[in-house]
Every structure is written in structure tokens, then in C-alpha cells.
């Protein structure tokens, strides 16, 4: 089968590899769609980060580069292994793409399994990936999505990132949230916040992405930071108080600086983006305003609730899909667009079987 294989920074190849084998306790999935994630771009430009470098196998998967990429996937079950009796061939599913040690409690009772030692991700540290025609995944990480269209279902994974970030923020109905960055994660975080009754303001320089935030209704207020004083605008919206919560979704230093100025005293800043470089922090601003700075990584027991948001019609994922491409065009029409012309796209999906 065809697969996109990550060898090293700037080196991703479309190759023919062996199809995976369905074993007891696993599920075979024909991949329908796989999104290109910002993490994939970071691996291509700055990596390896999550990908284990060649000759340095990951302690759980035992794999190192080259590995198959892709962790934002949807598909259809084509086989179930022995012991899997709650999924059937033909079911539409998505993958919660974790690689976690077998002795870690991954039940709903554990809200920290995603922070366990050596945690990594399918599609980054091995065990196949969504940028391939087929994948085999342990049953624990497969979630049925019912009648959600498969292209939209490929956005469940990044939407779960937004849902977990919302949970980390402790935001509540009636709060005002400021988001820096209207890329896929920023927009999908905004979608979750709006579904939960939170007022959303977004700072974003790209005209297309600002327009997408407004036309989808995920933000009531959208600012171009090159044209207006975002901090002043937020204070005007809040009677001088500042934003209750804020979400950093850019990995850009000026955006983080803006949030420290824009949040109210005792406000919460959640850093959602993956930083491939060190950031600087003026500690006195954190201290004097008693700002609560929180990290968030991926999701934990988030997929079922996130799927329900879509099934209940509280979040519409269709408008965020701006292009669908075949696997052979991954670099030219996918990575190149998102790296060099990211103001023209939001979420690009890949059809490995096309």
C-alpha cells in the first residue's frame, strides 16, 4: 500500500510498504481522510521532534525513522481482531492516536494517561499512520462516529485538542476568551468555546482566516493585529477588565506577549500550540497580575464528548475543510501550501486511497 514516510527534516517520501496485520485486540481501518497537522509541519521544518530519529527507537513502539505520518484520521473498519466484539466491519471510526505503555490505566478514571512516561502518537512515533491506505489500531483508541461524514470526522482529532484546551482553561458560560491564531487549532478551539456559551475574540493577520472565523460564527470579534491594538480592543469589550481566558495557538512570541497584556488580573492563559523553539516570559507580568499560565497537550478521555458536540449539531466542521488532495500531492499541494501560503488554507485533507 502507499504511505507517506518521514525520514528526516525536509525528507518525506511516498512509498510502497506492506499492509499492516490485524492481530487480537486490534481493528483494521481503511483510511478515508487524514488531515495535515501543524505538528506534521513542525516535524518537516524543525524535526525530528516527536518522531524518533533513525537508530533511536521509541521505547514503546520500538520504531524509529522512517515512520508513516498522519494522526488526524477517519476511516471505515475492514476487519476486527479476536476479542473485539463491539465494532463491526463497515463502522465509521476515528482514532485517538496514542502510543502509551500497556501498564498505564487508560480508563475514564484516569485523567492523566496522556502525561504518562514516554507517551507519543501514532503517526509520529510509529504504529502506522493516517497518511497511508490502511492502519491497524488497538481497540482502545478507536471511536465510532456514527453518521458523521468521514471528511468532517477527520477533524475530530484536532477538535478534541480544542475541547481539552477548553477544559484546561476552566472557562465558563459568559466569559470572554481571546485566541491568538485562527489556524485549524485556533478556529476549532473557538468552535468549542462558542458551543459552550463563551464569547470569543480572535487575533489573526490572515484575511482568509479572519473571514473564516466570522463566517463560521466561531468568533464574534476578529482583529488584525497589524492594524489595531488588540489589547485596547479587548479592554473596550470588557469595560477595561481584560479577557477572562486566553488561548495561545500560534507559537509566536508577540502573540504570547499580547495575551499577557490582554488578560484580566487572575486571568488564565492556556498555551495550546507546539513550540519548536524557546519562548521568553517577562515574569513580573505573570506575578503582578497573578496570571495563571497553563499548558495543554492533546486530549484525555475527550473524544466521546467531542464527537457528541458534532453529532448534536453544536459544532459544524464542514466549513473548515478548504482542500482535499491525493497522497501523491502531499508535499506540493499540502505541505508547501501550509508552509508558504498558509493564509490561503485552513484544513487540508489527504485521501490516501485516491
UniProtKB/TrEMBL annotation:
InterPro entries: ADH-like_C (IPR013149), ADH-like_N (IPR013154), ADH_Zn_CS (IPR002328), ER (IPR020843), GroES-like_sf (IPR011032), NAD(P)-bd_dom_sf (IPR036291). Its cofactor is Zn(2+). Residues 10-350 form the Enoyl reductase (ER) domain. SMART domains: PKS_ER. Pfam families: ADH_N, ADH_zinc_N. SUPFAM superfamilies: GroES-like (SSF50129), NAD(P)-binding Rossmann-fold domains (SSF51735). It comes from the Bacteria. Keywords: Metal-binding, Oxidoreductase, Zinc. Gene3D superfamilies: Medium-chain alcohol dehydrogenases, catalytic domain, NAD(P)-binding Rossmann-like Domain. One of its GO terms (molecular function) is zinc ion binding. Belongs to the zinc-containing alcohol dehydrogenase family. This is 2,3-butanediol dehydrogenase. It comes from Leucobacter weissii. The lineage of its organism: Bacteria, Bacillati, Actinomycetota, Actinomycetes, Micrococcales.
Amino acid at each position: 500500500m502507499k504511505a507517506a514516510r518521514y525520514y528526516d527534516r525536509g525528507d518525506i517520501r511516498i512509498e510502497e510498504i506492506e499492509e499492516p496485520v490485524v492481530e487480537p485486540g486490534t481493528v483494521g481501518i481503511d483510511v478515508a481522510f487524514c488531515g495535515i497537522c501543524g505538528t506534521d509541519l513542525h516535524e518537516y521544518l524543525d524535526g525530528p521532534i516527536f518522531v524518533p530519529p533513525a537508530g533511536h527507537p521509541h521505547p514503546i513502539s520500538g520504531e524509529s525513522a522512517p515512520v508513516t505520518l498522519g494522526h488526524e484520521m477517519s476511516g471505515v473498519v475492514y476487519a476486527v481482531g479476536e476479542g473485539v466484539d463491539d465494532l463491526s466491519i463497515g463502522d465509521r471510526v476515528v482514532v485517538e492516536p496514542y502510543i502509551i505503555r500497556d501498564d498505564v490505566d487508560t480508563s475514564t478514571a484516569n485523567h492523566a494517561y496522556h502525561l504518562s512516561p514516554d507517551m507519543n502518537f501514532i503517526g509520529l512515533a510509529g504504529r502506522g499512520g493516517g497518511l497511508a491506505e490502511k492502519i491497524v489500531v488497538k481497540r482502545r483508541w478507536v471511536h465510532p462516529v456514527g453518521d458523521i461524514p468521514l471528511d468532517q470526522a477527520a477533524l475530530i482529532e484536532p477538535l478534541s485538542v480544542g475541547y481539552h484546551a477548553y477544559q484546561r482553561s476552566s472557562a465558563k458560560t459568559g466569559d470572554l476568551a481571546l485566541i491568538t491564531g485562527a489556524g485549524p487549532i485556533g478556529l476549532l478551539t473557538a468552535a468549542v468555546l462558542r458551543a459552550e456559551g463563551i464569547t470569543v475574540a480572535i487575533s489573526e493577520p490572515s484575511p482568509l482566516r479572519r473571514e473564516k472565523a466570522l463566517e463560521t460564527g466561531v468568533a464574534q470579534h476578529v482583529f488584525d493585529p497589524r492594524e489595531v491594538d488588540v489589547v485596547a480592543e479587548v479592554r473596550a469589550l470588557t469595560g477595561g477588565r481584560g479577557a477572562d481566558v486566553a488561548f495561545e495557538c500560534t507559537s509566536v512570541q508577540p502573540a504570547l506577549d499580547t495575551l499577557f497584556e490582554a488578560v484580566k488580573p487572575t486571568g488564565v492563559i492556556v498555551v495550546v500550540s507546539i513550540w519548536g523553539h524557546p519562548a521568553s516570559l517577562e515574569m513580573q507580568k505573570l506575578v503582578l497580575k497573578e496570571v495563571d499560565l497553563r499548558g495543554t497537550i492533546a486530549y484525555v478521555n475527550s473524544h466521546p464528548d467531542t464527537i457528541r458536540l458534532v453529532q448534536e449539531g453544536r459544532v459544524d466542521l464542514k466549513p473548515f475543510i478548504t482542500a482535499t488532495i491525493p497522497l501523491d500531492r502531499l508535499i506540493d499541494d499540502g505541505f508547501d501550501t501550509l508552509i508558504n501560503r498558509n493564509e490561503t488554507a485552513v484544513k487540508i485533507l489527504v485521501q490516501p486511497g485516491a
